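$ run holo --ligand "adenosine-5'-diphosphate" --emit tokens
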Amino acid sequence: MKVLVINSGSSSIKYQLIDMSDESVMVTGLVERIGEDMGSLTSKTFPGTDREVKTEIEKPIPTHGVGLEMSIDLICKGENAVCAMDEIDVVGHRVVAGGEKFNVPVVITEDMWPDLTETERLAPLHNPANLGGAKDATKLFPGVPQVLVFDTAFHQTIPPHAFMYALPYEYYEEDHIRRYGAHGTSHKYVANECARLMGKPVEEMNLITIHMGNGASMSAVKNGLCADTSMGLTPLEGLVMGTRSGDVDPAVHNYLAVNRGLDIAAIDNILHKESGLKGLCGMNDMRDIHAAVEKGDERAKLALNVQTYRTRKYIGSYMAVLGRVDAIVFTAGIGENDDIVRAETIEGLEPFGMKIDPEANGIRSKEARRISTADSDVAIWVIPTNEELAIAREAVALIK
Ligand code: ADP
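-- output --
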């Protein structure tokens, strides 16, 4: 079976064609700067193998539909084609927000569109593009099942006392304001991988999963199901991120409005794009921050400290949520690559049975690995996430 996985963003499309017989990646591609004067398409067939072929096209790409069609042409036609169009059995789409209605993956049917369109207000930056990609693919692949995999689905087992905000109840009933979380596909994937690696059923495991990339979130996973997560109504809440503030006192809005004369849109923009690591030290890439710390940059050090302290605080709160913690999993760009952030996050948690082995932590690898000491009560793992494969597996499971 071959699955095309599409992640359609506001001005980009990421895609992978996966051969599910051995879960190998046949093609990866990225369409960028859709709608701008000049767009680009970069694609690799059989990436990472000795058969790898890279193709780069620069030309205006007016719409997502055009970008997707160009991508399909590369996959299925021309000298580097890897399969015919009718060999693609299912298309899986990443969708950021599913709301309360879409708590499991679905095969799109025509009658779903009113409910799907409703979800757009929960993630106005992401869902319209995600769903637009699904519409484009439906036209390009008539008769091929289009599966939507929602980032929020894994979090739908969070109980009401954890997903409710203490706001007037009608805002939940009428405006659907509650915690939905994000990165769920990744949290679920690494939780399952951790259970597999530890040789235990995930239903018997309590885990804290930390997805730390440019966006960052954490989940408390109890008996294999999500019990709490750090992102909220939107992906702004929780941990300190590249440019997003994470948790702040909600009164900050009024304070900034009064003191600086900013309107809501400006404040929202600051919290999303000018805060987090960037707000604290002017840099949002952790590699630049480490380089600056080495040179004695105090603000960079502060940004690192604020970030790791916040994450540690969440670990403490999730220990309280879970009671017993079997493992902590680090994943995504920072989680997978940054031994300093991992070490500083866990520092001080030794009395709670969480001990990092500095040597294992320092090893750079693309493989999953345990980085805790042999006598650490809680296993600590680095597990590379693979959202595309997770989407492909969900899509295949659904159509089977
Ligand atoms: P996104 O949320 O955009 O999917 P990623 O998971 O790709 O983000 O993570 C990107 C971030 O990971 C970068 O901004 C950078 O801070 C961090 N990162 C990537 N590689 C390294 C590395 N080798 N060391 C430290 N941080 C890294």
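-- notes --
The chain has two domains: 2-150, 200-387.
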